[in-house]
Amino acid sequence: xxxxxxxxxxxxxxxxxxxxxxxxPKAPDAMQQLPYITTAYSxxxxxxxxxxxxxxxxxxxxxxxxxxRSNWVRPDCxxxxxxxxxxxxxxxxxxxxxxxxxPDFVLEVASESTGRRDYTHKRASYAEYGVAEYWRFDRSxxxxxxxxxxxxxxxxxxxxxxxxxxxxxxxxRGSSPVLGLELHWxxxxxxxxxxxxxxxxxxxxxxxxxLEAETAARAVAEDQRAAEVAARTAxxxxxxxxxxxxxxxxxx
Length: 252
Description:
The chain is α+β, with helices and mostly antiparallel strands. The chain has helices at 13-16, 30-48, 85-91, 96-99, 115-118, 121-129, 204-251; strands at residues 2-3, 54-58, 61-63, 77-81, 93-95, 105-109, 133-137, 149-155, 158-161, 164-166, 172-176, 181-186, 189-194, 199-200. It folds into 2 domains: 2-201, Alpha-Beta Complex (tt1808, chain A), CATH 3.90.1570; 203-252.
């Protein structure tokens, strides 16, 4: 299972002795999903990185236990609170009976080969497993899923839709109570918005671009300040020369 959470402590010895689960087979169009899944990983991992009990991962099997493989599923992105990320990572999958609780959040990114399964079979499986929130993102706008963006929360063992809003700008917005964030479908991109900070969470490329822009702005400001200092120094020198000339004229 791919996990972006940095592990600083070894997994419990009992879990370490368990054999890792096998890697799931890749979908034929997995490369088309990869940029969107990677963005979700990096953004959410960065957001929760100060909490050692939060697991952010995906691309491995999710199951209740390892005895019955008939209903193993592979979520694209998983978030779980109050767990041991190292143990899940060492197991190469999320085994609910071993972790002690189901994931709190699952996200599926649509593709042509997996889209219909995401909002039918997988939706039923995640409800059965007790996943608190299940979100689906379709970059195509609904060609592969039943809609561009949708979220469900578990109520008495069944999923009920979370409300979504489409603004005049075409951005579809939904709030995730579990994450404390908003998910936005914005011209085919999945973005996470922090309502407390009033800003979007940034992935690595966006953070680097912001840093470069801020560095460039500081350089421009420093050049401007240097130019102002040089101009002030030149003006002061001119004033001093004129005063010297005036003193000479007055003394003649």
